[in-house]
């Protein structure tokens, strides 16, 4: 960890990652981060209790998934298992033209996100309190998103079964992983093939704290079979594991 005095500001984060964000976007990200930390003292939003540490482990980490080519103009994005709103809120601030839907099974987290976004004037977000397996089958949300993100949620065979049914044909599913991504990827060959998703790109990076991250970008090449996702809880209990 850098010393406290070395911690990055949002402006430095945006510049380090080469992102085009104006002062208003930078301010909103910093204020949102502060609101998350303040609320985390009352309820368990994020395990990180220090605002400066959260700037790196939440804001910086969230923005690493951003690749302009995968985020189409006026497109629709879904953040699955958004927790305290990461990466969904920083991405919504960065791309006000996109509609961003934040999904979580914990209602109080979504209520916090909705209130914080309203205070900050972030108008392009919607919260959706639903289990992933239900949302993936619902006509209004199934195969309707250009980009679906999942950060630090479950192992890849499970999160692929939850996330890919939301992605429209030609869209992208981005799994934000730690250092064990290779093994997870190998175990996911079978389910990825079933769901009609192909690995397009893998991005290896290090946070300023030295922690390693791998982001896997999958393109959906055809509609997923209607049998997926399976009923609530099945993917976790009986994940489809195997090489393609």
TrEMBL record:
Q: Which UniProt keywords apply?
A: Cytoplasm, Methyltransferase, rRNA processing, S-adenosyl-L-methionine, Transferase
GO cellular component, as recorded: cytosol
Top-rank taxon of the source lineage equals: Bacteria
The residues that the entry says bind S-adenosyl-L-methionine are 81, 86, 132-133, 151
The record's subcellular locations are: Cytoplasm
Q: Where do transmembrane segments lie in this chain?
A: none
Q: Which Pfam families match?
A: GidB
Q: EC annotation?
A: 2.1.1.-
* Entry similarity comment: Belongs to the methyltransferase superfamily. RNA methyltransferase RsmG family.
Name of the protein described by the UniProt record: Ribosomal RNA small subunit methyltransferase G
């Amino acid at each position: 960890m850098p010393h406290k005095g070395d911690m990055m500001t949002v402006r430095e984060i945006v510049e380090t990652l080469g992102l085009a964000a104006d002062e208003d976007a930078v301010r909103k990200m910093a204020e949102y981060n502060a609101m998350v930390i303040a609320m985390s003292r009352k309820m368990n939003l994020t395990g990180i209790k220090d605002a400066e540490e959260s700037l790196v482990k939440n804001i910086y980490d969230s923005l690493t998934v951003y690749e302009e080519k995968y985020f189409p103009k006026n497109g629709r994005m879904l953040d699955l298992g958004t927790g305290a709103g990461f990466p969904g809120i920083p991405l919504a601030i960065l791309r006000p033209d996109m509609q961003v839907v934040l999904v979580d099974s914990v209602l109080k987290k979504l209520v916090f996100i909705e209130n914080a976004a309203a205070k900050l004037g972030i108008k392009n977000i919607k919260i959706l309190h639903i289990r992933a397996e239900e949302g993936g089958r619902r006509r209004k949300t199934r195969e309707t998103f250009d980009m679906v993100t999942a950060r630090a949620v479950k192992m890849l065979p499970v999160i692929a079964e939850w996330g890919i049914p939301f992605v429209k044909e030609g869209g992208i599913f981005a799994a934000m992983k730690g250092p064990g991504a290779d093994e997870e990827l190998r175990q996911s060959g079978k389910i990825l093939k079933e769901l009609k998703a192909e690995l397009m790109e893998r991005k290896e990076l290090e946070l300023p704290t030295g922690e390693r991250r791998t982001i896997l970008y999958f393109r959906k090449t055809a509609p997923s079979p209607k049998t997926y996702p399976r009923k609530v809880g099945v993917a976790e209990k009986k994940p489809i594991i195997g090489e393609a």
